[in-house]
Amino acid sequence: MTMTDHGIPAPTHAEDLDDLAVTTIRTLCMDAVQAANSGHPGTPMAMAPVAYTLWQQFLRFDPADPIWPDRDRFVLSAGHASTLLYALLHLSRVTAVNPAYETLGEPAVPLEDLRRFRQLNSRCPGHPEYRWTSGVEATTGPLGTGAATAVGMAIAARWQASYFNRPGYDLFDYDVYALCGDGDLMEGVAAEAASLAGHLRLSNLCWIYDNNHISIEGDTALAFTEDVATRFIGYGWNVTRVGDANDLTMLARAFDTFRAEPRRPTLIIVDSHIGYGSSKQGTAAAHGEPLGDDDVRATKRFYGWPEDARFHVPDAVYEHLAAGLGARGHRAREEWMARFERYRGEYPELAEQLYQMQHRRLPDGWDAELPEFAPDEKGLASRDSSGKVLNAIAPHVPWLVGGSADLAPSTKTRLVFDGAGDFGPDEPSGRNLHLGVREFAAAAVANGLALSKVRPFWSTFLIFSDFARGAIRLSSLMEIPVVHVFTHDSIGVGEDGPTHQPVEQVASLRAIPGLLVLRPCDANEVVEAWRLIMGLRHEPAALVLTRQALPTLDRSIHAPASGLARGGYVLADARSGPPEVIILATGSEVHLALSAYDQLTAEGVRARVVSMPCWELFDQQPQEYRDSVLPPDVEARVAVEQASTLGWHRYVGTRGAVVGMDTFGTSAPLKELLTKFGFTPEAVTRAARECLGQR
Hints:
By secondary structure, the protein is of the alpha/beta class. It folds into three domains: 255 residues, Thiamin diphosphate (ThDP)-binding fold, Pyr/PP domains (Rossmann fold), CATH 3.40.50.970; 176 residues, Rossmann fold, CATH 3.40.50.970; 128 residues, Rossmann fold (3-Layer(aba) Sandwich), CATH 3.40.50.920. Helix 15 links the parallel strand 11 and strand 12. It is elongated. The termini are far apart.
């Protein structure tokens, strides 16, 4: 028998190669965690046979092109087990891709980066990060979110197939796999998403549940004793079980069962033991701690691995994965590319749309029917004008798809043009998604759609953005252009009372790095908001809209609404000379600012009104522009917004004032609320005079 250079017997049979590959994955995971002295070794070690079987025998994925459109997706919802994914990416020799969609000819995960697991600038951070490491399909973040995101990917696959596929041209038929643990299934977002997936009969979705009975505090029996299989059967899922995570034959049979299931998503319950070797190792692994040098040696000895070999990969493992996953994926991609070239010849318009969708580009003329709203004192609620704009855009951007967390009639996000349709179990071509009262899952599903290159929007009331915050944050962290539409944006909700009146939510959204928060003041600012949003490729946006009607401003008197693209602009200026006082406002309060402006102007005060629909965009402007809007020598400034005052002092300074909310609202008709909380022209005018030193 020949030996490797570390004294490991060189395998000669496929079964031996499988065992060698699994052991290599396990030892790489152990070594990475031990080198970092940080991380979770137990789950990667226990799930190594499961992930290996999936990748080597079933996953349709080309390591040479990890962004090929029809690849199967593998989402590591149990993101704390990140070394498992990094080991697979390394052993499969996945190629890195840059933001311009170019393959770089270098490994996505070099062995050196595994050696530097959890260290600064390593391609192997503590949890998988989309856009940081090629081959990572999603930043899964907190538990449960990755599984929910996978539902969005499965929906995207169904919709893409219905729109692009033609007889003889199956361009989209990929499957989506998510590896979950006990923690994922305890989280409410996973339950929301599983319920939706069962309703939609997403038979292209497979969750793999690592049933190891361990969480951070110890045995899951402390808090989690439900019958998971029965729960998922109740959701409408196909459920199968593998009694031993090391049984590659039964694992393969389970994946075959998933692929043969025509009408339901599949949950594969895999029973595993989180530690191998000594009892100390099992305890350490369960609590997310490195094993320690002694237990690493003992475990390697248990595996028949040289005790002192660190980050060792036998050449046979690289070759074995190249002959399995690599060859199968390359062949499938080459067949797809040849099919696409034939498709391009027969369906050139669809082929061009597919290319545009994949590269997040817009079709020519997408904005040809954007409305221009005439001046109107009565006006429209910005939720209504947004609905009109959305329905003017969507027919020209066929992959603009979205829905609501059961509030489309109120958020005005329903697509109503001919052919829009409703996405459902038997209608995958519909562009209206019914997401149910599941805000967190709705936002996570939208993330999954965006990761699959569909352009998504979803909506709810602003107050309920709190439920979805985890997924909103991830859309920003991943830099994907999800449109989060929030209506009923202030105490203007009125009689519904403080439980439904958002106060701190706008400030909370503004606190998320990279998220553009837009609160337009009238119908034409809404048009410009959507014009800007549709051009985004790497930034998510939160569009914050009113329930109550807003006057449509006369832009022959006031500055053009196109100023929205710069985040803030001078809407109405002093009629002679430089301004003495500046009133800044967003959304419905811009009209209040204009009323105060009229009063001050009539009194001879040189006032300026600045519409500030998007702080983030304003802060990105050159200093010269910002100073032209907010001259540094004009210290008398008043900000007006029916929301928390938090953050406004960055613009009004220490001598300025903020007319905003420092308490919760109350239940009353709108006009009474405005008077009670000081949102009146008189209150704003009084604040302006005080800033000017006029009592």
